[in-house]
Amino acid sequence: QAFYYPEEAGLAFGGPGSSRYLRLEIHYHNPLVFKGRRDSSGIRLYYTATLRPYDAGIMELGLVYTPVMAIPPGEDSFTLTGYCTDKCTQLALPAAGIRIFASQLHTHLAGRKVVTVLSRDGRERQVVNADGHYSPHFQEIRMLKEVVAVFPGDELITTCTYNTEDRSRATVGGFGILEEMCVNYVHYYPQTQLELCKSAVDPGYLHRYFNLVNRFNDEEICMCPQVSVPQQFYSIPWNTFNRDVLKSLYGFAPISVHCNKSSAVRFPGEWEKQPLPSITQRLPEPVPHCPPAPGPQPAAPVPLNLGELRR
């Protein structure tokens, strides 16, 4: 479906200080290298000189694009979590709060589930958006069924679940398609200066993890700053101990919080080695509304020769 702003908010552009250009960015996925395909997709913009009551904005939630967040190979369900902390929202959001009306969940190829939860005073209050059957090949901006109000002091916690059973080495965070992301781009109003509210594990604690792994495997402790984080992850022998300790590290280690303005400058404050938010009460697991239908089961899938699809 086409994406429309709600009646009470719109994206402001034009006027003094506004860019005279718009850029459309399209990503193509063509693993079978089909040739001769033509693309007629595009974008149609509707605009008006009559401003709506609120300017809308976009905010990034989840994990920072960094290799310190990694997934071991051979995992059927490995979770990573990024935090927009109460300290950031307390500082950056207006007293009346903001209203989230749409959301675009995003991972790369290993992503299987994504969920963002609103927490207040240590208690989970509301799911902002969730997809328990996420596909990286079908990503869209989804209008929320219910507008989510976020106030100063609230926390927005984004968790992604990954499957790396088909991979032989660690998958690190980053921009490449074979690296990973965990992001929720939320559309909200009124627009604020806060454009990015994300986190990653404290690099110093990750360095301690690498030292522990080296000791456990009877290897010399590598204190070499020239060895990159991805290379250190790639060299780890992924036994049960190394996997469990990494999961534990991500579950208790302090985080580096990025509470950034649209200029990419952080809001003033101390953002390193921040404790993980304490959640004392969680939302109940959702119960499916559709019971299995009686009757015959669907027929088995029929394999297709992809060569027949060429035109």
Automatic annotation (TrEMBL):
It is found in: Cytoplasmic vesicle, Secretory vesicle, Chromaffin granule lumen; Cytoplasmic vesicle, Secretory vesicle, Chromaffin granule membrane. One of its GO terms (molecular function) is copper ion binding. It holds the Pfam family Cu2_monoox_C. Its EC number is 1.14.17.1. It comes from the Eukaryota. Pathway: Catecholamine biosynthesis; (R)-noradrenaline biosynthesis; (R)-noradrenaline from dopamine: step 1/1. Residues 2-32 form the Copper type II ascorbate-dependent monooxygenase N-terminal domain. Residues 278-311 are annotated as: Disordered. Residues 54-210 form the Copper type II ascorbate-dependent monooxygenase C-terminal domain. InterPro entries: Cu2_ascorb_mOase-like_C (IPR014784), Cu2_ascorb_mOase_N (IPR000323), Cu2_ascorb_mOase_N_sf (IPR036939), Cu2_monoox_C (IPR024548), DBH-like (IPR000945), PHM/PNGase_F_dom_sf (IPR008977), Tbh/DBH (IPR028460). It catalyses: dopamine + 2 L-ascorbate + O2 = (R)-noradrenaline + 2 monodehydro-L-ascorbate radical + H2O. Keywords: Catecholamine biosynthesis, Copper, Disulfide bond, Glycoprotein, Membrane, Transmembrane, Transmembrane helix, Vitamin C. Residues 285-301 have a biased composition (Pro residues). One of its GO terms (cellular component) is extracellular space. It is a single-pass type II membrane protein. Its main location: cytoplasm. GO terms for biological process: dopamine catabolic process; norepinephrine biosynthetic process; octopamine biosynthetic process. The keyword Glycoprotein applies. The keyword Membrane applies. Its cofactor is Cu(2+). Belongs to the copper type II ascorbate-dependent monooxygenase family. Catalyzes the hydroxylation of dopamine to noradrenaline (also known as norepinephrine), and is thus vital for regulation of these neurotransmitters. Homotetramer; composed of two disulfide-linked dimers. This is Dopamine beta-hydroxylase.
